[in-house]
TrEMBL record:
SUPFAM superfamilies: P-loop containing nucleoside triphosphate hydrolases. Belongs to the ABC transporter superfamily. This is ABC transporter ATP-binding protein. It holds the Pfam family ABC_tran. Keywords: ATP-binding, Nucleotide-binding, Transport. Residues 5-233 form the ABC transporter domain. SMART domains: AAA. It comes from the Bacteria. One of its GO terms (molecular function) is ATP hydrolysis activity.
Length: 310
């Protein structure tokens, strides 16, 4: 798979503040890349650097295999974007706004505007000036503007902000369609893990300007989510028995009442028997899923502040 975006040690400082620090990321063709991070992590700044709207302080960017320089234009024509709250000509209609955009981009495929408005399901808007639009409608129109020129790459900054639950659902399936049917590659930022985990193929976690991890959802699901939790009133004895008597090393003590074993090779029955025979006071043994939220919170050592839901 080819990489449409590649950054190497990309950095941005504003005065004394390090907003983006040494970020090396890859977005591959045909995927939905979820860019996850709490508010203020530097997501918008990084996306603006990808679009040449903000000048990096250090590092480099490649788009479609071509180095992005201050005067670069061609690769940017292949990108649709919506960064922060979209701005429109308020007195014009949705259609007129998109017409102006297509004109500016030199894009003249007939039916493109109608199709984009239908894709985002903007309804009952004929003749209405954009100043009468709700936040959700503006967000939909922003997405329509980003996709109406059929870009190969879409950069969307917090695209579901302001949408109601139905709108979120519709937008999520639109993103999947754009990727699967229209062959677009999407980079979507969000501070909401619940949103990103449902749509992304790859997740990049940004925290205080640093990329903590870039990982496929598939590998998170298969390797990080399963564990067996022993509830006990004596975690120290339990850990000692696991280590010394049962040869289990990949465990973690959680507070004063639980021990978690990852990738356990013995059966639950064998484990239970081994613990009881060694006088560990076991109150329960359960197979659990490490929620993705826990997984990401652990990554940021609990300080990330991801919202699990809206
Ligand atoms: N032009 C600027 N001058 C000074 N500081 C800035 C500028 N732009 C952004 N920052 C700071 O950089 C940090 C990261 O901002 P950025 O908007 O990139 O974060 P974000 O992850 O997109 O968060 P949000 O979702 O809240 O926009 C913030 O602390 C912000 O105040």
């Amino acid at each position: 798979m080819t990489e449409l975006i590649r950054t190497r040690l990309l950095s941005k400082t504003y005065g004394m503040a390090d907003v983006v620090t040494n970020v090396s990321m890859k977005v591959r063709s045909g995927e939905i890349y979820g860019f996850l991070g709490p508010n203020g992590a530097g997501k918008s700044t990084l996306m603006k650097m990808l679009l040449n709207l903000v000048k990096p302080t250090g590092g480099e960017i490649e788009l479609f295999g071509e180095r992005l320089l201050p005067g670069t234009i061609e690769p940017l024509k292949r990108i649709g974007h919506m960064i922060e709250a979209p701005v429109f000509y308020e007195k014009l209609t949705a259609e007129q706004n998109l017409e102006l955009h297509c004109e500016y981009m030199g894009y003249h495929r007939s039916g493109a505007i109608r199709e984009a408005l239908e894709l985002v399901q903007l309804r009952g808007i004929e003749g209405k000036p954009v100043k009468q639009f709700s936040l959700g409608m503006r967000q939909r129109l922003g997405i329509a503007r980003a996709i109406c020129t059929r870009p190969e790459l879409l950069l969307l900054d917090e695209p579901i902000n302001g949408l109601d639950p139905e709108g979120i659902q519709e937008t999520r399936s639109l993103f999947r369609r754009l990727c699967d049917e229209y062959g677009m590659t999407l980079l979507i930022s969000s501070h909401m893990l619940a949103e990103i985990e449902q749509i992304a193929d790859t997740i990049g976690v940004l925290d205080r300007g640093r990329l903590l991890q870039e990982v496929s959802m598939e590998s998170i699901r298969s390797s990080k989510t399963d564990y067996v939790e022993i509830s006990t009133t004596d975690v120290k004895l339990c850990a000692f028995v696991l280590d010394d008597r049962l040869g289990i090393r990949n465990y973690k003590i959680v507070g004063n009442t639980a021990v978690r074993i990852y990738a356990m090779s013995m059966t639950q029955e064998e484990l239970f028997k081994g613990l009881i025979l060694n006088d560990v006071p076991v109150t329960a043994i359960n197979r659990r899923h490490h929620s993705l939220e826990e997984y990401f919170l652990e990554l940021t050592r609990g300080g990330g502040g991801y919202a699990a839901s809206h």
